[in-house]
Amino acid sequence: MSDELQHYPFTLLSESGREHLQRCADLAYFQEGEIILDAGESSRHVYVVHKGSVAELDVAVPSERARLGVYTSGDIFGAISVISGKSRYRFRAEQQTLCYLIAAQAFISLCEKEPAFADYFRQRLVEKGRRLAEQREGGVTMAGFMLARIADCMREPLVMAAGSSLRQAVEALKQHGVDSVLIEQQGRYAIVTKTDLLTALVLEERGVDTPLSDVAESHLVTATPQDYLFSALVRMTRHKIARVVVMDNAKAVGVVELADVLSYFSSRSYVVGLELEKAENLEALARASARLPELVETLMAQGVKMRFAMDLLAALNARLMSKAFEMTVPADKLAGACLMVMGSEGRGEQMLKTDQDNGLILADHLSWPDCASDMERFSETLQTLGYPPCPGRVMVSNPDWRGSARQWRERILRWADVGDGEAIMRLTIILDAHAVAGDVDLLERVRDALFERCRDDQLLLQRFARPVLQFSSPLTLFGKLKKSGHGIDVKKGGLFPLIHGVRAMALEQGIRDTSTSTRLKKLVAAGAMEAAFGEDLQEALELFSELRLKQQLAQWRDEQPPVHGNQVMLQQLSSLERDLLRDALKLVNEFKQRLSRRFHLEY
Amino acid sequence: MDIQTLTYLFVGASFALYIGIAIWSRAGSTKEFYVAGGGVSPMANGAATAADWMSAASFISMAGIIAYAGYDASVYLMGWTGGYVLLAMLLAPYLRKFGKFTVPDFIGDRYYSNVARTVAVICVIFVSFTYVAGQMRGTGIVFARFLEVDVNVGVVIGMAIVFFYAVLGGMKGITYTQVAQYCVLIFAFLVPAVFLSIMMTGHVLPQTGFGATMLDASGNDTGVYLLQKLDQVVTDLGFTAYTDGSKSTMDVFFITAALMFGTAGLPHVIVRFFTVPKVHDARISAGWALFFIALLYTTAPAVGAFARMNLINTVNETQYEKLPSWFYNWENSGLIGWMDKNGDGKVQMRAGAPFDGKPDYVGSRKDVQGSHGERMLKNAPTDNNSEVYIDRDIIVLANPEIGNLPAWVIALVAAGGVAAALSTAAGLLLVISSAISHDLLKKTLKPDITEKQELLAARLAAVVAIIVAGYFGVNPPGFVAQVVALAFGLAASSFFPVILMGIFYKRMNREGAIAGMLAGLLFTLSYIVYFKFVAPDMNSAEHWLFGVSPEGIGTFGMIINFLVAFAVSRVTAPPPEHIQHIVEDIRVPRGAGHAVAH
């Protein structure tokens, strides 16, 4: 096999290593269609294709999608199987094939002796993760919706001059069979929808010659053609609108209508969203709410990226809260109050509904004597909707978690001064707060005080960041996963340090976003973190979330009490997942070291 | 069990304890997410602070210096304790309110100037370096004696252990490890002191035994006070009386002040105050720390006196062959040297150095022996009749052996010495590495450095620091002592006034601060360099300015710094408005400004 040995990755080997391979390799012949290595079989060899081709097949999926890859002359397969002990896929000769066989034992001992060679097989986390995700994405494109881009589903925009009359607009809409028209004025766009036209003509009784610009809405919700269609749906849900404008380099290139998205969407998952939107009483809301876990499972089964699934779920959860809030609170108080969700819900990282984590900010001038009893009722309502009360009592029914904007600012200053574990936890909670109903500005002003007080106080930041070192990584001294009968706690070992570390850096850098992945992006943009490291952390975050979610879903199905919701059983993981988990935990370890330095945690 | 086995056992067990605590404190999977910092009691924090504070210098060297220099050495006791009080009362509470973690950060921000920051960084690095060097020497001596290797090999072993502990182990941040270290070191210091006190004076407390009358061999009170007896013995041998000082009052005052103001800025202790979240708790833990420190510092004079007494009784006028075995062991480590000048085969202890410099042996004992079996020296003899060199740093370690205490006490002292050196050295290494990577590189020289590079720079800085410190530990011929004096003097004269005025005088501006620091620094540096290095033969009281020795001149430099800074700040523009506000604000207790609503 001297030819093969001249190529990568064998060039990583030392001279003696290559000679050794040369000596111990056997040559084997396989007929067309012969299965060389079957899924689930333990491999006794590593194969190097000399002539012919071998297909890699996933036996778990229908045949048209099963073919994962092809190995031809010079390619190596079976190495991962040797390392992990079992083959995940089936390898079948597609034509008459000659392979060199390297005995598993020889291969492993070679890996031990030659670290560079071994490293090749233990590739970087991100590359492998990406491959896994791409595989899934491939499957999803066939399922239809989830990975479609906006460009696939948008319409040509109908653009008219700003001075055009309402009459001209109605004619144009009719002629083109669309529901909205854009007007352009000095490079800025505004939108007029059918509803806007009806309101202007019928309710406000404006003349048909009124210029379009008088009735146009200039605050546009936009997206780019490369965005996932999914994110357009998230935005529509969040802003309660029926279309988004697609912009490319400051030019409107299309419009995505809700109706179009729905027609694209055959999965039942959005039905939940619709149900939620239509619900006019608490019973209907409760029915919709009960189906959320099901939606999560559907999304996961379709292999949707965690981030998008999380975004959708967060938007749906927020709508649910907001509807429940509007149903509970007197209408005249809504404008002077702000309901915020906090913790993982605030970060938009909650997949399954868990506890209520919420708070209430009131405008300083608002007088609302019944506030306490109304909030009591709201908490009860959420409970009937499937959100159990928070054991730490972080919820609106607790007077500590509601108050006027001024009281909130004072609380924040007090917590920052005290700085003990309890106070730090509260700062953490409010830092992740996200407004879901009422006056959003109230929260922003409260958070202004938070950033102003904390950003430059290094001692406070040190105490804020310190909990990242609270738990040791479930890795052995030699970087292997610890074998534990109770599984590995991905929350304490991975998710918590990652999320909290990113949160501390966001506080330091004055980044106001709440989701960890957005914070990561902004940190990279602010130069506080290298781009590659930010991406790696993002991948690790998704891996942890996914592993945890799988476990939680399994429990939800089996209706087990969620006692060990954060424990991942190693035995239930594939070897690839185990490798990824180990690499991700190593990454978190490095992150902890950087944080230690950044926030002076060594002392 | 022999002493060596016991030493392995005790040092090993104490290490196992620290590591065990570190693992235990991180591994608990039942813990909540946000208890860090809040769960440590002020008393534990005080003990941790004390462990940081008391270095190998306090544990090993101080009692040794006292044993030799007697009253003169009291400046160290007063200076270091006073420095702690100054730091805890005058600086830490305000620095904490300023919200800056390191002293250079405070100075850089308060004086809105990177020049000021850089000067402060250099001071911090310099002070920390000399301190670490002292620790290295201390650990080196411990390992040399108990592993029976040369002191230089001991230093290298100590370097490896400190490096592993501080940089790779990440055990520094754990309060309870520090508490354990404090317990080990104080226990190790007190046990032999109590033993000796009971044996020599019948008092359990060494502090009272120090001022009590002596017992004779059969336990009867002789009616002679310990210090009285000691004075008599040492003057008989030609030394200055133990309780008399050779320094002028002025000089003692200045040296004490220089040590105080120099130590007040020690960065690795300041950070300890910052790790306690509540101001109230921080105050209480400072009080506890003072108590824990005082426990050792008040014992040290007694230990010094007991040791000196026993040493003279055991060694002086004794036939070399009849000396106890510890004498030979320390001789093997290179810390004792005997030169039989009068050829009587007996060891004479007299005032003055027996020969020039530190002992320099001809080969090992195995290869070359004198007529009595002693190690042969190459050093040129002096013309007095003093015959024996005993390194001061071995006094505390040898003390239990000299006093014939049980072997386990001796092993315990070894563990204590290692604990004292470890906690301080680890803290200082972290300070140095973060001063270089964070304050110097990231904040001043190369702001665009990535996090990864910063981490690497920090590691490298720690490695370099430990190697340089190790070098000074191996080659200390009087050098460390001189540089320590220099370092404290420089710290006192450069950044102490700037910190103080930064807190209490809002009119102080950048120009004043920089001018003051430079004036104080240059004056002190040139004075020290002149007397220590340019004209060492002029280094005596009659040539000194106002009779102040180079060790104490830092106080003078500090006064100059104050004056220059004040004068310059009056003739230049006041600091920006927002800085003045901050300065006003730091002196108002937090929470006083706004009502607390609930």
TrEMBL record, chain A:
All residue ranges annotated as the Cyclic nucleotide-binding domain in the record: 9-88
SMART domains registered for this protein in UniProt: CBS, cNMP
GO molecular function (one): [protein-PII] uridylyltransferase activity
CDD domains per the UniProt record, alphabetical: CAP_ED, NT_GlnE_GlnD_like
Gene3D superfamilies: CBS-domain (3.10.580.10), Jelly Rolls (2.60.120.10)
Keywords: CBS domain
Pfam families in UniProt: CBS, cNMP_binding, DUF294, DUF294_C
InterPro entries membership: CBS_dom, CBS_dom_sf, cNMP-bd_dom, cNMP-bd_dom_sf, Diverse_CBS-Domain, DUF294_put_nucleoTrafse_sb-bd, GlnD_Uridyltrans_N, RmlC-like_jellyroll
Start and end residues of each CBS domain: 216-271
Protein name: Cyclic nucleotide-binding protein
UniProtKB/TrEMBL annotation, chain B:
Organism superkingdom: Bacteria
Cross-referenced Gene3D superfamilies: Sodium/glucose cotransporter
Membrane spanning residue stretches: 6-24, 53-71, 77-95, 115-133, 153-170, 182-205, 252-274, 286-307, 407-436, 456-474, 480-505, 512-533, 553-573
Entry membrane topology: Multi-pass membrane protein
Key words of the record: Cell membrane, Ion transport, Membrane, Sodium, Sodium transport, Symport, Transmembrane, Transmembrane helix, Transport
GO terms, molecular function: symporter activity
Keyword field contains Nucleotide-binding: no
Listed GO biological process terms: carboxylic acid transport; sodium ion transport
InterPro entries cross-referenced by the UniProt entry: Na/Glc_symporter_sf (IPR038377), Na/solute_symporter (IPR001734), Na/solute_symporter_CS (IPR018212), Na/solute_symporter_VC_2705 (IPR019899), Sodium:Solute_Symporter (IPR050277)
GO cellular component: plasma membrane
Cellular compartment(s): Membrane
Primary localization class, coarse: membrane
Keyword flag tRNA-binding: no
PANTHER family for this protein: NA(+):SOLUTE SYMPORTER (SSF FAMILY), SODIUM/PROLINE SYMPORTER-RELATED
Family membership noted in the UniProt record: Belongs to the sodium:solute symporter (SSF) (TC 2.A.21) family.
Protein name stated in the entry: Sodium/solute symporter
Phylogenetic classification of the source organism: Bacteria, Pseudomonadati, Pseudomonadota, Gammaproteobacteria, Oceanospirillales
